[in-house]
Amino acid sequence: MNLQAVRAIYCFEMARAGRTLLQSLVSPVISTSLYFVVFGAAIGSRIQEVEGVSYGAFIVPGLIMLMLLTQSVSNASFGIFFPKFTGTIYEVMSAPISYFEIVLGYVGAAASKSAVLGLVILGTANFFVDLHILHPFMMLLFLVLTAITFSLLGFIIGIWADSFEKLQLVPLLIITPLTFLGGSFYSIDMLPSVWQAVTLANPVVYLVSGFRWSFYGISDVSVVASLVMVFVFLGVSLAVVNWIFRTGYRLRP
Amino acid sequence: MSHPTATVSSPATASSAPAAEPAPVIEIIGLSKRYDSGFEALKQVDLEIRRGEIFALLGPNGAGKTTLISIICGLVNASAGQVLVDGHDNVSAYRAARAKIGLVPQELTSDAFETVWNTVRFSRGLFGRKPDDAHIERVLKSLSLWDKRKNKLITLSGGMKRRVLIAKALAHEPEILFLDEPTAGVDVALRRDMWEVVRELRASGVTIILTTHYIEEAEEMADRIGVINGGEIVLVREKQALMRQLGSKQLTLQLQQPLASVPPALSHYPLALDEGGSVLVYTYDASDPNAQGQVPISTLLNDIEAAGIRFKDLHTKQSSLEEIFVKLVRERQ
């Protein structure tokens, strides 16, 4: 195992986040705070409690999940797309490093960044609402697994994309809508029954539901279904990454 | 300039080299590459690179130079064939093979916002070597980059960026260095500096393979020259042998009085008049004094004098590698 190489990639990516601290940390924190002000305080004060939890507190897991998904995808996709775009990827591809180690370096760094960001947003939320975490271990498990899974998805997007437009396409057209419609800001019980059934086809519902359960013990779907869904995502992403490296898709003609 | 133990070799004779010769540091066997588009970039290439030599790979655009280098370095998958780097298969034993190689790519690629120091340090780590700041300092100093170590790459000139790429390639102390068009777009002074750096590297035992468009670069530095065209290695020769073998020489005499024609007494020599009869040109093969119609220069000059022809100046000129190269490529086409 070429641990030096994994470390080099990991540190390089973390240093990049350090250089762009405003973009990678401050900006998501500010936008999350805005969500709290608008949905939690302004609108939330007019909404009654959801299953015994104040609306402001209810949306915290959904907001963290929203940021976790979008930031994981954008961090990881940019991390691998940029060296491809500038041509510096040649160095990684010519180094004595395995596919697994490349993924570990890039995805590990992207997942670390978004997991830290998730925790920072959690801390920020604490300023706005009264937070309780019933199952802290499960909360961390959901946080870390989701960060890894969606960083893998971002890595796949970064390899697939051959333009900046494509890089933005999946996060903008798929991830954000799915997250907004995945129960981040509401319980799916609030929807008409037809839409409840449709929503269950949205995989993000399971992530938000499981994550919210770890906070308040309430969920739209069973926790087991949520965990299974996370692992299914993880498995599919790993399978795609494996296929990419086996075939050299867009990396090694 | 030629390698002390080198012997004339060609793709055809490479595999039948004498047993006493040291094992090649790179052995390419039947290497082919066909891209998805159907373009056949390499056709059954066989080549051996000797340890410690400077090998120049020449060829026109699209000849397959960069594809060949890219396959050896692991950037492109071969369609068929095998590459052994110091005995390690570059696919099945890619870690051992790649650890020995440093690559300076053709394109000036860089992480614009990184500092020189960090980017070179990153390269060392990427190749699995423990941090060694003393080594990186030596590399940066040898490339006159030490003063720039804290500069971001975006602030450097093209020539400096090229040096950074060399520093990155040397960060993990490779035994083999590939330089793909190392002096493309580099000014003359910097080019000479780089040649010096390459010579020093060779002196330290590093094997160097360079591709170039600049024939003078190969002529100046290489021990052996390989010519690739249309995905095939056209020939591999010692540089000196190649120039001797393929290069004709010309003796040019500036006459005091123009001649209307070559005097009958000299008609058995391959002589030609030029510039309105004021220049007499004798073309001969310097590598083969016994060639037909060829005599020692002193005999020719005596005969010219005996024929009553007086000259005010003379000079000889040998074909440059560029002329040889153009001739070779044309012949193949």
Automatic annotation (TrEMBL), chain A:
Swiss-Prot/TrEMBL keywords: Cell membrane, Membrane, Transmembrane, Transmembrane helix, Transport
InterPro entries registered for this protein in UniProt: ABC-2_transport_permease, ABC2_TM, ABC2_TM_bact-type, ABC_2_transport
Pfam families registered for this protein in UniProt: ABC2_membrane
Localization (cell): Cell inner membrane; Membrane
TM region(s), chain numbering: 21-43, 55-82, 103-125, 137-157, 169-188, 194-211, 223-245
UniProt entry tagged with the keyword Transmembrane helix: yes
Membrane topology note: Multi-pass membrane protein
Source taxon at top rank: Bacteria
Stretches assigned to the ABC transmembrane type-2 domain: 19-248
UniProt cross-references to NCBIfam families, sorted A to Z: PRK15066.1 (NF011648)
PANTHER family: INNER MEMBRANE TRANSPORT PERMEASE YADH-RELATED (PTHR43332), TRANSPORT PERMEASE PROTEIN (PTHR43332:SF1)
Family: Belongs to the ABC-2 integral membrane protein family.
Protein name as it appears in the record: Transport permease protein
Organism phylogeny: Bacteria, Pseudomonadati, Pseudomonadota, Gammaproteobacteria, Oceanospirillales
